[in-house]
Amino acid sequence: MIKKFTVFFLISGLFALNNNLFGISESNKSHFNPTINKKEQEYDLIYNIEPFYEIKKVRFAVTLEFRGDKSGETKILLPGNFGGKNNYEGIKFLKPLSENTSIINTDNPEQKIIKHPSGEPVKLYYQVEEIRNDNVELGNHYLTILNKTYFHFLGETFFVFPAWDWYSNYKILITWNHMPYTWSLANSFGINEKIQSISVSLDQLSSSLFMGGDFRIIKRNVDNNPVYLSIRGRWNFSDDQLLDIIKDIISIERNFWNDHEFPYYIISVIPIEGRGEQGGISRTNAYALFLTPDRIIDYRLKRIIAHETFHIWLGEKIKFSEPEALSFWFKEGFSDYYARLLLLRANLITQDEYVEEYNKILYAYFTSSVRDEKNERVVKEFWTNQNIMKLPYMRGDIIAHNLNAIIYKNSRGSKNLDNLMLDLFKRSKTESLTVSNGSLSALIRFYAGEQALADIMKCLNSGASLKSHPEALGPCYELEIESFRKLWLIGELYEIPSYKLKSTNKSNNKKCLEWFGVK
Ligand SMILES: [Zn+2]
Hints:
This protein has helices spanning about 10-15, 200-205, 240-255, 300-310, 330-345, 350-365, 375-380, 385-410, 415-430, 435-450, 450-460, 510-515; strands spanning about 10, 45-55, 60-65, 75, 80, 85, 90-95, 100-105, 110-115, 120-130, 145, 150-155, 160, 170-175, 185, 190, 195-200, 210-215, 215-220, 225-230, 265-270, 280-285, 285-290, 475-485, 495-500. By secondary structure, the chain is an alpha+beta fold. The chain has 2 domains: about 10-210, Immunoglobulin-like, CATH 2.60.40.3650; about 220-475 and about 505-515, Neutral Protease Domain 2 (Neutral Protease, domain 2, Orthogonal Bundle), CATH 1.10.390. The protein has a 7-stranded mixed β-sheet. Helix 3 packs across helix 4 (about 300-310) and helix 10 (about 435-450) packs antiparallel against helix 11. The protein starts with 7 loop residues before the first strand and ends with a helix. The model is unreliable at about 1-40 (pLDDT under 50). Zinc ion binds next to helix 5.
């Protein structure tokens, strides 16, 4: 795995530093001296962004500079299909500004060829326009938002990139010109910085988050590292209440992974149309939350924050092999399992809430019309079929509970699922291990044994129903199975497991909580 890291400095501080700090190898990268830069510093990519006003709308005018390939041709990538729309439709007036440069269309509207003098600097111009016709709502929430009050965009819906190696680090300069002086500016790489000098991969820039306008920005420290909340709109909770919850969740998750390498982190919150809805997406040094204004700080909101935060590790720091959807049961289901578990450990939910919510998942899984579908179908229909989309979340949640109980039993109480997860994280760092059903199988076999692995694979490969482990919630709970038919007397027979507190126990007593790792 290519080592990726991000360094944040103001440009003034940058000049004093050695290039090696930025992971740039002078021998194999071509550089050029941009006109913008009067000092000796060199950049691989330079973006200048400024608002462009028309009577009815605002666009961003962007210039992009880089050194063209020695062959005299450089392929560029426009924003592609992301969030259910062709984002290249928002790229307008793309044209060359450098001399003797031309743009050739290809069969693919997301790719163009730039012809230019061999190895010379190339400068391109384009504008970005919001392509949404409706209000911002779930379904179109990943598209660039750009109006007279604010903007909010994901890197892959905005930037045109040269088609360079996606995972190498590049030195990139982003300058924000003529922004309204009342606007705040916040993104994956800093707060209120008009000139941003960063060293990131195109993958990281593509997965970044940018916003500006009428956002309120507040800050907390987690182990001396700043965590920012950038939020707009009116809510049923205060900005501080929300950020305190976020801070507690970030703190417990960093402690879980024993990972505190986070020099900077930001969460954006914007209101969307609708009732009772919420969405989130994990980003470089950030995640974005999209909430309807009626949302309150309840289990669902805490769960999505904890789930998105968990993806910092499961999905970003711990990489997945393609096709990733084959391992969604692990990525999404285990993130749901740990979201709930770590909320309990952080005292942000009660033990009763934990059990109630898990019982809801069991009910949903055991009455799901697609519960016996093979993993192959998940890969094919994940993004198009709502029922299929929910399946890996539920399967992974149940598998995680079962595995935890099996590992605990096999190790006579000395280990649980946490050990497997931390082992995976360690190996992803030291052995560049990526997650696939193959690499997971080896770990599961080692920690839980052959039978546990066989049961999981039977579910994924043949669609066999999972069974709930009787001791999945520890010594204080017992498993009950309720049978009923879909229609009275006839129809499909459902057998729904659920966990009930044993009559000899009271919830929240020390012994019961110990099982969940609550200290
Ligand atoms: Zn997720």
